[in-house]
Amino acid sequence: MTGLRYVYAVCRPFGTPLQAELTGVAGDPPRALTHHGLVAVVSHVPERDFAEEPLRRHLEDLDWLTETARAHQGVIDALTSVTTPLPLRLGTVFRDDSGVRMMIEAREEDFLRTLDRLEGRVEWGVKVYAESEPQESAQPAQKPASGRDYLRQRRMQTRSHEEMWQKAEAFSTRLHEELSAFAEDSRMHPPQNPALSKATGRNVLNAAYLVPRANSEEFVELVDRTKGEVPGMRIELTGPWAAYSFAGETT
């Protein structure tokens, strides 16, 4: 089949085949391209969509980007179930197999070193959200009888908000310290924009943790024990993922 080569990840050779029905980006099944003892997992993609100029335009198309990201992630998830992949950036494309081999040779030492560090490990994501209003204020405030009453209510609301955010910061800091002590490594990401994530509340912790696959159940239990510990705090756990946050720059 002709076309450009879309690369999902680099990994070591693995014996367990991927699902026969698995399709990748642009509907083409992924395949393994082995070189120098490493495997690049690739698909064929059409030049009309993935050459430099059309790809740049497509990356600004939210619908196209969502569909492509979903297909990309599906292949990474399938790889994570059978091996330890080193994910490459969305939209990593080469002209042909030779270009993929040259990339492997150029980054071989980095790939091997990173794969050694990530072998048998997965990434878990933890987010903490604080409710936008204190739960204690569920009842409507009384209408102020005077300007002085209005100012007093405003001061009380401000103090209540400040106390809530202080509580949220203290809780998220303590949780991050506990999870980091259990994990082998951790990464703090910027808080999510609620307009993009559509999540309610204020994101006060957005972190990733590198955990040995064998210890994942214990890590999940550790997170679960903190849920409901502090009123107004919502914890979201995602994973296990390929170790995106710990792979470093690979392209």
TrEMBL record:
Signal peptide: none
PANTHER family, alphabetized: PROTEIN GVPL 2
Compartments reported by the entry: Gas vesicle
Source organism of the structure: Streptomyces iakyrus
Matches recorded under InterPro entries: GvpL/GvpF
Lineage: Bacteria, Bacillati, Actinomycetota, Actinomycetes, Kitasatosporales
Transmembrane regions listed in the UniProt entry: none
Primary location group: other
Keyword NAD attached: no
Keyword tRNA processing: no
Name of protein: GvpL/GvpF family gas vesicle protein
A Pfam family: GvpL_GvpF
Keywords: Gas vesicle
Family per record: Belongs to the gas vesicle GvpF/GvpL family.
